[in-house]
TrEMBL record:
GO molecular function, one term: phosphoglycolate phosphatase activity
GO cellular component, one term: cytosol
Classification of source organism: Bacteria, Bacillati, Actinomycetota, Actinomycetes, Kitasatosporales
Keywords, alphabetical: Hydrolase
Keyword rRNA-binding in record: no
Protein's name according to its UniProt entry: Putative haloacid dehalogenase-like hydrolase
PANTHER family, A to Z: PHOSPHOGLYCOLATE PHOSPHATASE, PHOSPHONOACETALDEHYDE HYDROLASE
Superkingdom assignment: Bacteria
Hydrolase listed as a keyword: yes
Length: 224
């Protein structure tokens, strides 16, 4: 028996890998940051890949331990990623903007979230011309600083938009296991993975995805 789709009123979408093409930019920026700090990036990249979707400062704390070093690494990463954005390397995934506009036309509220710092998130939004596309965008610092896989950004979107009466009216969509975990932990009624980013279908399902989509472009049809 097919489970009916919940009455979704709030859609929380990840950015890099879900609505924004990643193209290895996170790894490039990390390698640039490691070089600046005189660290060997090769042995750290596996950890970076495994923790895609997590708050970047959290990842650097895991890698470098010392808070000062982690902050320095995070600053170098954000600067390197900003250089890539300024260089025109960021693009929307095919159909992403159209999907967001269709979800909005269906009467749903869309929120964009990221594991990047606010300055980087704003630079990406500006590069894409998305500053006014959705009513709310969130980074980890906007939700207490923990980021994914904690449910904080999802629950902050729920509280700040007041678009839904129940967490089961939330859909959480992303390309990483941590996106899925954050949705499950928030009690979202629909948790969906997309195959345009970091993790494959098995990893997404293992982390709690109830749906796995080829891309976010398929989401309006699923909800309709």
């Amino acid at each position: 028996m097919t489970t009916p789709t919940p009455d979704i009123r709030l859609v929380v979408l990840d950015m890099a890998g879900t609505t924004v093409a990643d193209g290895g930019l996170v790894e490039q920026a990390f390698a640039a940051a490691a070089r600046r700090l005189g660290a060997e990036s090769a042995g750290m990249l596996d950890h970076v890949r495994a923790t895609m979707g997590e708050s970047k400062i959290s990842v650097f704390r895991q890698l470098f331990g010392e808070e000062t070093k982690a902050q320095e690494a995070n600053k170098a990463f954000e600067e390197a990623y900003a250089d890539l954005v300024d260089g025109g390397w960021v693009a929307a995934l095919p159909g992403a903007r159209e999907a967001i506009e269709e979800l909005t036309s269906q009467g749903r509220t869309v929120v964009l979230t990221t594991g990047f710092a606010r300055t980087t998130q704003d630079a990406i939004l500006a590069a894409l011309g998305w500053q006014d596309l959705v009513p709310l965008t969130l980074c980890p610092a906007d939700a207490g600083g923990r980021g994914r896989p904690f449910p904080d950004m999802v629950l902050t979107a729920f509280l700040r938009t007041a678009a839904a009466d129940d967490v089961r009216q939330i859909a959480v969509v992303g390309d990483t296991s941590y996106d899925m975990l954050s949705g499950v932990r928030a009690g979202a009624g629909l948790v969906a993975g997309v195959l345009t980013g970091a993790h494959d279908a098995d990893a997404l399902r293992a982390a709690g995805a109830g749906h796995v989509l080829e891309s976010v472009a398929d989401l309006p049809g699923v909800l309709a």
